[in-house]
Amino acid sequence: MSLLHQDSPEEIDDAARGEEFTRGSSHVLLAGLIAAVLVSVAIGLYMWLGQTPPVASGEIVQVWAHAGHVVSSGFDANGAPMAKESVDQVLIFAHVKLRNESKNPLQMENILANANLGNVILSVSAGSAAQYEEVFLAYPEVAAMRSNVLRPQMTIAPGQNVEGTAFWVVRMTKQEWEARKDLSFTFKFQYQPSLVLTPHTAITEQ
């Protein structure tokens, strides 16, 4: 190339445009990286702010179970003779602690005992306070498990702790009970998510 050669305007423009393209690409990469970081932060904040704390917490302190075989008296409520009925059933008692973690009263509607029998999950509602007394009349051998009853329908004030024993009468044989896969308890609240608790200690067989 001659020393007298001078770059044409087209060559100068192409060189300038090449520098601009390189500079522009780096800007695009930096902008993309910043956008990705901002999106990640936004998603993290959304997930963190969107998490609502549970309305209730609790603990299954202890569980007792008693398998029994019951034969009816052979008389109906009016004293008339009727065929005797033989029933296998398991009594389940759970000592429970609950706490209302919300700022509003919680209306508990039911407490379910859930027994996983392998091919089916059996869910049974807890007995009432009146039925709790009847159980100890029908089964005097379980009198040692008697304590303050936890009513399945009750209102728990904000920040309040409640403690007591809930019970269930489940129709199943002792063999079916012993073959269960696991046991859990569901506390159902009006207009609020349910609380599911599992015992962390061995079940005491009576």
Radius of gyration: 34 Å
Pairing-aware structural class of the strands and helices? alpha+beta
- The number of helical runs is 3
Work out the number of β strands.
9
Give the distance, in angstroms, between the N- and C-terminal Cα atoms.
Answer: 106 Å
Outline: elongated
**Sheet bearing the most strands, described?**
5 strands, antiparallel
Mean pLDDT: 81
CATH architecture of the largest domain: Sandwich
Text of the CATH class of the largest domain: Mainly Beta
Helix content: 25-40%
- Return the string of H and E elements: HEEEEHEEHEEE
Number of domains: 2
Report the CATH topology name of the largest domain. Immunoglobulin-like
Low-confidence stretches are 1-5, 44-50
Blueprint of the fold:
Elements lengths: L8 H42 L5 E16 L14 E15 L5 E11 L4 E5 L3 H10 L15 E3 L4 E10 L3 H5 L3 E8 L2 E6 L6 E2 L1
What keywords describe this structure?
single chain; about 210 residues; alpha+beta; Immunoglobulin-like; 2 domains; five-stranded antiparallel sheet; four-stranded mixed sheet; 3 helices; 9 strands; elongated; disordered N terminus
